[in-house]
Every structure is written in structure tokens, then in C-alpha cells.
Automatic annotation (TrEMBL), chains A, B:
PANTHER family linked to this entry: ACYL-COENZYME A THIOESTERASE THEM4
Domain Thioesterase residue range list: 121-194
Membrane topology: Peripheral membrane protein
Official protein name in the record: Acyl-coenzyme A thioesterase THEM4
This protein's UniProt keywords: Apoptosis, Cell membrane, Cell projection, Cytoplasm, Fatty acid metabolism, Hydrolase, Lipid metabolism, Membrane, Transit peptide
Organism, scientific name: Mycolicibacterium komossense
Localization (cell): Cell projection, Ruffle membrane; Cytoplasm; Membrane
Assigned EC number: 3.1.2.2
Family the entry assigns: Belongs to the THEM4/THEM5 thioesterase family.
Positions in coiled-coil regions: none
Gene3D superfamilies: Hotdog Thioesterase
Length: 208, 208
């Protein structure tokens, strides 16, 4: 399994790749949504399947042996492009664009559609946990400059989170040694729907 | 937003649709994986994007207005096919096939590949939370015969969960009035990697 990648790229190459892969991944994301919602006849489904398999075969002609890993540009921009929450190359990711304020508070505004549904018309509780785990982790890691792994995470569901436009926020509550306590929430236009608290732990190899 | 669907189907139609959509969705799932891992040249990426957009356009010729919702066959088989964990029509779902033992313990064996990566070579912590929220919820709902919504869920990460073959289990720990307490874990060949506890609440409309 390929894990770490050492071929660091510069910022111009990062931008070039992002401009290529963002619309490509978006096309896969749209297909994923259409595959859930389509009501076309069976023959069209079968033809679509053959067309998709042909595209996949072309893409697999040359590919990474394992997963994408986490890469950094030579000037330190993170390239977690396979990531299921923020990944530029992962069609499962909404994707979240996470902003970090000067006080290190992280926030993101995003849309969740048909692919994220649990109860009818509402976000799957586990998808909310996925989003919150990620954004709390990013806040705890101070914008990904300090590696941290989730120790525990707890989510409290105040009410159903409707599919559609949402916001997530996270911030560091306190730091105790190698443990960082982060808090956050998901909200819709009417306020918080899910609140979370997480403990993130600095790995041994990254401690001072 | 389409939420509930009343057009109940019989068991034969359920099986027919499942046989049609399972391989179709699997083709989208493979494409999603290939899109993350491909190393083909830029022109091939652009051609693939056009081909994918053409398929999506055909599928969208006739589609549900909103998300898939949760349906049941006339004989009560659940059809949460848009679900991001178990959905037969959702390429984001691994998908988990969840088995329920006679004692109502739920378990599933599944594979997580490149699309679920957080730390290099390992499952995203939030994906583990997504899987656990779902399987604990299913255990708490006694095989989806009793509706329940997540009240709280807490996950404790014992060590990194490697991508690859995994198992998840969940069971009811105790019931107190409208609250069901469920526990579960994810494990690899070497034992538990993540443990979870959740409180699930019977909605008002489903109470006796």
C-alpha cells in the first residue's frame, strides 16, 4: 500500500492540477447523484453502466498502486486530495472548503444533497459525524500545520439536519499537554443541529 | 424535496431492481476509486470528464426531484437505497451488508479502499464514525423494524484503522424508556480499532 509520497510539487503545478482535477471530480460527483436519482428505463441504465466501465478502464491504464495518501507542496500547501471530506479528487467529498480565521477558528459553508441522506430528506447522522470529525480535527491541528489524530469524538444531535445549505464551525477549547480539546457544530438557517466535542492527540513522532 | 414514497413494490420487483442497480452502482463506485488513483495524462482526464458528463445527462433525462428517501416493499423489506452506508444505489456506500443475528446483534464484513482514506493508508476517523453511527443505529432499531434517531454517539479511537478488510459489530446494551443504548466496534485482523457508544431515541410519532 502506497502511503507517503515524496515527489513534492511547486505551487504552480499544484494550481495546474487543481484546475484539471476539480471539474473532473465534479463530473463524477454529479454522476453519483444522478445514479441515485435517475428514473430512466433499464436499457439506459445498462448502457450507462457500459459507458462508465469504459471510462474507468481508460483511467486505470496508469494509476497509483494504493490510496492517494497525503502530500505537501514544496511550500507547504496540503494536498489531501483523496480525502472523503475535502478531497479535490474524491467525488464522495462534498467537498468542504475549510476557512481558518486569524484566531484559528475553522468554518465551512457547503451543500449536502441526495448522496448524504439518512432519514428521508435529512442528513445521515454518521455523515454529520464525518464532517464534524474532520473540521474539529482541522481546528485542533491549527490549519493542518500540526499533526493530530482523533482520540475521541462525541456528537450530540439536537434535531434532524435537513439536506441543503449548511455550515460547520470548529475551534480549540483548550490544550492539555499532548491533548487538544476541540468543539464545533453543524447549523442550518435556524441554528445548531449537531454539536460535537473531540479530543485530538499529538502523535509521539510529532511531539517536541 | 421528495421525502416519503408511497409506491410500495412487491418482493419480486425489489429483487429485479436490485439486480439491475447493484452492478450499475458498482460501476460508479469503481469510477470514483479510479478518479482518485488515476495517473493518465491531462487529455485523457478531459475526455473522461466529457464522457462522464454525457452519461449523467442521459440519466438526468428522468429523475426524482429530490433525494431517494426511504421506502419499504409491501412485505416490509427496507429499501434505503440512497443511504451513504448501505445504499444499493449510492456509490459512496462501501456498501455495508448488515447481518442481524437471532439475538439482534448486527455485524458486517466490508472493505474500505482509497475513497475512505484520512491519514495515509488509514481510514478517515469520520468514516469510522459514519459506519459506527449506522450499525449502532441499526442494532438499536432491531434490524430497522423500530424507528430510532441518534441522540448522541461517542467514538473512541484505539489506534489507526488500516484501509482494507474490516468488520463492524453492534448490539443493544440496555433500554431505558424511549432511549436505547447501543455499543459497537470496528476491528481489523488484530482486534478492535475504534469503539463506540450511542444513545438512540424513539421518535414521538413511533412511541406506543
Amino acid at each position: 500500500m502506497r502511503q507517503f509520497t515524496h515527489e513534492a510539487i511547486d505551487s504552480a503545478e499544484f494550481d495546474r492540477q487543481k484546475a484539471l482535477y476539480s471539474p473532473f471530480t465534479q463530473s463524477v460527483r454529479e454522476l453519483l447523484d444522478a445514479a441515485i436519482r435517475t428514473q430512466v428505463d433499464d436499457d439506459t441504465i445498462r448502457e450507462a453502466q457500459l459507458a462508465i466501465e469504459a471510462v474507468t478502464q481508460r483511467l486505470r491504464a496508469r494509476q497509483l498502486e494504493g490510496a492517494y495518501g497525503v502530500r505537501y507542496t514544496v511550500d507547504g500547501r496540503g494536498q489531501a486530495w483523496g480525502n472523503p471530506v475535502i478531497g479535490v479528487r474524491n467525488a464522495m467529498a462534498p467537498p468542504l472548503m475549510i476557512h481558518t480565521d486569524p484566531d484559528l477558528r475553522c468554518w465551512s459553508e457547503f451543500e449536502l444533497g441526495a448522496a448524504y441522506e439518512g432519514p428521508p430528506g435529512h442528513v445521515h447522522g454518521g455523515v454529520s459525524a464525518l464532517v464534524l470529525d474532520h473540521i474539529l480535527g482541522e481546528a485542533a491541528s491549527a490549519g493542518m500545520t500540526k499533526p493530530n489524530f482523533t482520540g475521541t469524538i462525541s456528537c450530540r444531535y439536537l434535531r434532524g439536519t435537513p439536506l441543503g445549505a449548511l455550515r460547520a464551525e470548529a475551534y480549540i477549547d483548550r490544550v492539555e499537554g499532548v491533548k487538544t480539546f476541540a468543539r464545533g457544530f453543524i447549523s442550518d438557517a435556524d441554528g445548531h443541529t449537531v454539536e460535537a466535542e473531540g479530543v485530538f492527540i499529538r502523535p509521539v513522532w510529532a511531539r517536541d
